Amino acid sequence: MSYVHLIPYTVQTIIKSTKEIPPGIQLINAPFSWDNGYKGEGVVIAVLDTGCESNHSELREQIIDGKNFTTDDQGDSTNFEDYNGHGTHVCGTICAARNDSGVVGVAPNAKLLVVKVLSEKGYGETKWVIEGIRYAMNWRGPKGEKVRIISMSLGSSEDSVELHNVIQKAINSNILVICAAGNEGDGNHETNEFAYPGAYPEVVQVGSVNLQRKISVFSNTNTEVDLVAPGEEILSTYLNNEFAVLSGTSMATPHISAAAALIIQQCEQEFERSLTESESYAQIIKRTIELDVSRRYQGNGLLDLSIGFKSRYKHDDQLTAVK
């Protein structure tokens, strides 16, 4: 039996209440997208994590459905509550409501499919993740909605053929799979640190920068990193209807997962058709800024959502890119 776990992260501060756009969300210029009318409307993101606090004031209207694959609550499949905090934090970065209190997520009008594959202690069996991915692939919403993006801030040092195969099937079914790079970085860009599923070439692997746009010392380096996003001092939702500041590549990943929702909404409106998974990936990469570090750290660079409004593409052949 193989296992996956939360990619280690740091809880820096717990906050009772707040009212702000988190600095990480400002760093990737998400408000630029909102001001142009794109907030993730119509896009469902499956979050495979420790669940989500379903009655959090910033998240209760964002959850469209969910399922528990763990042994928490005696294996009650209908109870996807979060007893850890990690999943709730990730969900808040993705789509916390844009209202007059709390925080706001990158894609505040997107919907969450909460797929609980990690237990209260942050561990899970690999088969739970595999089952969770299959569930996300086959899920249909009340209006026929389908999952467009799977977000996974989890990892293992073990490569699983079965996990890799189901991820490939998800991608072939036109779902973007976005994963954390991992926090085993040693500060040497010439060495590789791999955490799976992030290291699989088919997924979008996300590394971390701090709020000063410097690579996080903990962020894994390898030749499969696709891009980076804010992963240090990230303010988001937390347990007990509170908020917390956390750090880790786990926190960088939901910035990209939610940004993908904004990009999909924008591009499908502009092109008047659905994008393929590879086209969606290409549009994410077009919105990156190269940093002055090795590609093993940054991949294509730091996400910047304002780039999507500085040019307009005239031909569909400009949509594609290669992972």
Please explain how this structure is put together.
By secondary structure, the protein is of the alpha/beta class. The strands form 4 sheets. A 7-stranded parallel β-sheet has the order 4-5-3-7-9-10-11, sandwiched between helices. Strands 6-1-8 form a 3-stranded antiparallel β-sheet. The protein has a 3-stranded antiparallel β-sheet with strand order 2-13-12. Helix 4 packs parallel to helix 5 and helix 6 crosses helix 7. One of its GO terms (molecular function) is serine-type endopeptidase activity. Keywords: Hydrolase, Protease, Serine protease.
Kindly summarize this structure in a few lines.
By secondary structure, this protein is an alpha/beta fold. The chain has helices at 23-27, 30-35, 86-95, 126-138, 161-172, 249-271, 277-285, 295-298; strands at residues 3-6, 10-15, 44-49, 63-68, 111-116, 123-125, 147-152, 154-155, 176-180, 204-209, 227-230, 234-238, 242-247, 288-289, 302-303. The protein has a single domain (3-318), classed as 3-Layer(aba) Sandwich (Rossmann fold).
Strand order of the largest sheet: 4-5-3-7-9-10-11
Taken as a percent bin, the fraction of beta residues is: 15-25%
Q: Please provide the ordered H/E string of secondary-structure elements.
A: EEHHEEHEEHEEHEEEEEHHEHE
| Helix content class | 25-40%
Give the CATH level 1 class: Alpha Beta
Report the total helices.
8
* Helix-and-strand structural type: alpha/beta
* Gyration radius, in Å: 18 Å
Characterize the biggest β-sheet. Answer: 7 strands, parallel
How many β-strands, per DSSP? Answer: 15
